[in-house]
Structures are given as structure tokens and as C-alpha cells.
Amino acid sequence: MAHSSHQRLSASRIIARFFFALLCLALAGLMVFHQQIPDVMGLGLIVDNLAPWMGLGIPVLLLMALVVRGRISFIALLVPMVVWAVLFGPAFLPSDQRVPEASLQVGTQNVHESAGVQAARELAAHGAQVITLQEIGEGQEPEITAELAETHPYRYMVSTVGVWSAYPLKNPEPLDLGLGWDRALRVDVASGSGDVRLYAVHAASARPTGHHERDMMLSSLAGYLAEDDSSKIVAAGDFNATSSDRHFAPVANQLEEAHYSDWGLALTWPRTLFPMLGIDHVMLRGVESASLERLEIADSDHYALAATIDLGN
């Protein structure tokens, strides 16, 4: 009787370890192939943008491994651990900050309609030479311009997206990115180290119930970037997409993201004790990131980003 009970216990433990290994492989597969999950009822959007947070499943699996025990369980646990470390680990490590010989400081924030003047003031005080703001409220452009008149006398604004610069701006162009009304722009910043093509972007909102307009804008932006032969390009703003979003991939294929200078991800929304998503970005081509900071300024639901860009020779 005791021998039979021991056999049943062993069989149960074998089954438990088998299903545990399947769970580990499932989590690893979800992290690797999250962009292939059908976007039914917004599922793809949710999984894509929360992909880095899937690593939270690893401590849960570790507790389960301690229960089911066995060498094979801990070997199986290594699979999602390695996958997460390869896919998302590097983004959690801080980049080395440096002071380049030739640089451009760019600040960006979605000001949530009412925080434009305060954001402009604080970004300028932080050292931003080019400031781009999104979701600027009606009537705020003159106030922001007056606030920055002495330090950033050059400006260009399209709808609710604006750029104020300490350097002259050339070749301004509004971009509707397929939306039907202008919600982005591009302009050349005549810096002391040559012209820099700047794209200032505010992509449409993305919700599980609908994100077609945002997807279209990101795809259109990627098309503009693919055709742009400028030697130095910076794109900054609220893209309403994280780096792991499948619809952000066309933009990321054209530009490189400025790497966060602190530990963890540069999560910018919502501005709470525990922000969840990094939907604001500074993207680069032909230049390098010297530093990227997240700033808690102005009365907005987004954090601001301040990037020091190495313009090289």
C-alpha cells in the first residue's frame, strides 16, 4: 500500500513538472512572438505594449519551481529568464553619460493642454536648446513664445505641436501623416555643428477599442523617414506606442532610440507613482545619444524627456 502511494505521488510530481515546463516555454514563446498574436479586440496592442512586464511572471514561476522541485524544473525556468534578458534586459541597464564636443540638447513633453508655459520654462532651465511640446492648449502659443522669447526666439507650430529653438529654424513643413489634419511637423535646426532635421510628432491615441489612426501615422512617418536623405535626423514627441509595439517597429527600423541614462525603462505615462508605458521617445539617425533623462516637470500626465545628442563632426 505504501509502495503504491509512493508511485502515485511520483506520477503526480512528474505531471506537475511537465506542466511547469510547458508554462516556462509558453511564457518564453509569448515574449518572443508577442507581435504575432492576432490583434483581436485589442489583445495584440495590450500584449505588445506590456511585453517587458512579462518578466514579472518569472518570480512567480520561481516560486512554483520551489514547490514542484527537480532539476528539470529549474532548467526550464532558465528559458524565460534568458529570453527576457536578451530581449528586454539591455534596455533596463543605464547608458554611459558623456559630454560631447558638439551637442544639441532636445527636450520634449506632452503638456496635456494646460502645462505648456510651465513645461517650456522648466525645459529651458534644464538646458534644452530645442523644445518640442505636444497637445498644446488653445491660446497657449503666444504665452509660450513670450516665456521663451529671450532664449528660444525661433519657433514653428502646427496645430497642437510646436517647436521653440535657440537656433534658427529652416524649411518648416507640416505633416498630417495620413490623419487628415496636421499633427506633426519637420524642420531643420541650424545648429552650430550643421543642420539637424527634426521631426516633432504627436501620434493619435491608441486604445484596445481602436488604434487605426495611430498605426497609420506611424507607418506614414516611417515612410517619410525612409525617403529622407538628411545626414542628421532627430524625431521626438509622443508616439503613443512603446518600443515593443508592432506598429512602432517601422519607425524603429529607420531610427535608433536614445538610450535611457538611468536604471530601468524611461516610462513616461501615466505620471503616477508607478508609470506603466514608455510612449514618448527621442529617436536618432546619423547622430548618437550622449544622455537621456526623464524629468518630472510641469502639471502634465506625461513625464518629459531631455536628450543630449552628440552631433559628432
- What characteristic shape results from the CA principal axes? elongated
Under CATH, the topology of the largest domain is which?
A: Deoxyribonuclease I, Chain A
The CATH architecture term of the largest domain is: 4-Layer Sandwich
Q: CATH superfamily assignment of the largest domain?
A: Endonuclease/exonuclease/phosphatase
Kindly state the percentage of residues in helix.
Answer: 25-40%
Average pLDDT over all residues = 94
SSE pattern, N- to C-terminal:
HHHHHEHEHEEEEEHEHEEEE
Largest sheet: 6 strands, mixed
User: Which class best fits the helix and strand makeup?
Assistant: alpha+beta
Overview of the structural elements:
The protein has 313 residues and is α+β, with helices and mostly antiparallel strands. The chain has 2 domains: 2-92; 103-310, 4-Layer Sandwich (Deoxyribonuclease I, Chain A), CATH 3.60.10.10. Helix content is 36%, strand content 26%. It has helices at 2-32, 43-49, 57-68, 71-87, 89-92, 116-126, 140-147, 212-227, 249-254; strands at 103-113, 130-136, 154-158, 161-165, 169-175, 184-191, 194-202, 233-238, 256-257, 280-285, 288-295, 304-310. The strands form 2 sheets. A 6-stranded mixed β-sheet has the order 3-4-2-1-12-11, with helices on one face. Strands 5-6-7-8-10-9 form a 6-stranded mixed β-sheet. Strand 5 and strand 6 form a beta hairpin. The radius of gyration is 23 Å and the shape is elongated. The model is unreliable at 1-7 (pLDDT under 50).
